[in-house]
């Protein structure tokens, strides 16, 4: 495992590559919350941005569930939680985003994100 994909990057890979995204992400990591964030992003693409039908979003969510079986799903430990919260306060970033940065740093993984603000924060660590 070399890369940790955040939801922004994972959604973009899945939307642009569909089934081929499985080979792109195989063996890399995601956080346990990434599947929920991805589902929310697909919902947003469908309902707010009107770029996906419910059928398309459902199909892409199924691909996401399938590819997650070929990835390492990481969780923060109890000891990580206060460190993540401290980073969130310090960086004025969401707890979710701070969890990606913290776990990438702690596990020596390269964070893959399409979120420019998160990329800027991660570059500090």
Strands of the largest sheet, in order across it? 1-4
Major sheet size, sense and barrel closure: 2 strands, parallel
| Count of β-strands | 4
Rg, Cα atoms, Å: 14 Å
Mean pLDDT over all positions: 96
Class inferred from helices and paired strands: mainly alpha
Note the beta-strand portion.
5-15%
Percent of residues in helices: 55-70%
Poorly predicted regions are none
Spell the H/E element sequence: EHHEHHEHHEH
Q: What's the tally of helices?
A: 7
Structure, briefly:
With 125 residues, this protein is mainly alpha-helical. It has helices spanning 7-17, 21-25, 34-47, 54-68, 80-91, 95-106, 116-123, and strands at residues 3-5, 29-31, 72-74, 110-112. A two-stranded parallel sheet has the order 1-4. Strands 2-3 form a two-stranded parallel sheet.
Topology:
Layout lengths: L2 E3 L1 H11 L3 H5 L3 E3 L2 H14 L6 H15 L3 E3 L5 H12 L3 H12 L3 E3 L3 H8 L2
Parallel strand pairs: 1-4, 2-3
Helix pairs in contact: 1-3, 3-4, 5-6
